[in-house]
Amino acid sequence: MVSAHVAIVKFILSLQLGFSKPQMRHLTSMVNGIILCEGRKNISIIREASGKERHLSSTTRFLNESPWSVNRMQKRRMERVMQAIRKAPNNRGKRTVFLLIDDTSWEGKFDADVCPFCIVCTDLSMDFVTILSYYRIRWHIETGYRYFKEMIGFDQYQLLSFKGINRYWAIQFLTQNLLELQRMKWSKPSTKLTLGDVVRRFRHEHRGQMLLYVFEQAMQKKPLFDILRDLKMIS
């Protein structure tokens, strides 16, 4: 059968969330579905993209009622991200703090005489060009918002309980962290990937798994109807 990408499984296991096996399957399935489904995302569509492995009511119970700690998930995923940031070659032994004054309200009407543009850096050894080059990284915040809303579906939930919404958001943040860590792993010095590139690679490799499964089953003379049923493509 076609399973979730190994990178998803390894990342979730590395968080050591203390989940039961059914809870781990639900979480893995949700993260997998969030990455694979295109367009608008809600619980039903995410479930379908992940292969319909379990009933919709079971997924909603996992979000609304299942006994697991969202605070532990948030804490563990942030620890994992900070660990990766500290291990990055460019960050070893460095501690630089920036205060970036948001210029969103100035878009299209910036006037340096009325509202001067300020960038504050605590590292006095840096020259102006270097500081500006770092500030360019701020653009990733804007693209991050776009990916978070459009590609991961952060604002497209359809849950009634606050508890369920809070848990759904936590899983969305976890998914974004996974994609960012994979972007760091898969990027090369000559080719820097975007989160969109990473999502497309996940989807491409998933389709490759499906084609391989269909080929293997066809070689064993398995009926097409049974293959499609196994892939949850028909009821």
Q: Could you characterize what this model shows?
A:
The model has no long low-confidence stretch (mean pLDDT 81). α2 crosses α3 (43-49) and α2 packs across α8 (162-186). With 235 residues, the chain is mainly α. It has one domain. The protein is built from ten helices and two strands, in the order αααααββααααα.
Write the layout of secondary structure elements.
Elements: H1 6-14, H2 21-36, H3 43-49, H4 56-64, H5 70-87, E1 98-100, E2 119-121, H6 128-135, H7 139-151, H8 162-186, H9 195-219, H10 224-230
Antiparallel strand pairs: 1-2
Q: Please provide the count of β strands.
A: 2
General shape: globular
Range of strand content: under 5%
What is the chain-wise order of helices and strands?
A: HHHHHEEHHHHH
Secondary structure class reads: mainly alpha
The overall pLDDT average reads 81
Main beta sheet strand tally, sense and closure: 2 strands, antiparallel
* Helix percent band: 55-70%
Distance between the termini: 16 Å
Summed up, the helix count is 10
Please give the radius of gyration in angstroms: 21 Å
